[in-house]
Amino acid sequence: MLDFATTDLCDAHEDLLANGALRVVPVPLLAFGRRQRFAGPAATLKLFEDNSLLAEAVKTPGNGRVLVVDAGGSTRSAVLGGNLAAAAVANGWAGLLIAGAVRDADEIDACDIGVRALALCPRRSVKRGQGERDAVLDFLGVRVTPDRWVYADRDGVLVADRPLHGR
Question: What is the pTM of this model?
Answer without folding.
Answer: 0.96
